[in-house]
Amino acid sequence: MAIIVNLDVMMAKRKISLNELAEKVGITNANLSILKTGKAKAIRFSTLEAICKELQCQPGDILEYREE
């Protein structure tokens, strides 16, 4: 897929665990894990907004487009 998810990089920079972020954002660990591994087919803007708020970052810090 041409969309790369760099959520794990931002989480490492902010020193926050998957469990902690999932709890603060209000989604399940499983759904956050699916997003983190790049297996998600979609993301709600409200979820993306909540993640960016918690990680104090921009959507472009998490999502990246690369041509295949």
TrEMBL record:
It holds the Pfam family HTH_26. GO terms for molecular function: DNA binding. Residues 7-62 form the HTH cro/C1-type domain. Signal peptide: none annotated. This is HTH cro/C1-type domain-containing protein. It comes from Clostridium fungisolvens.
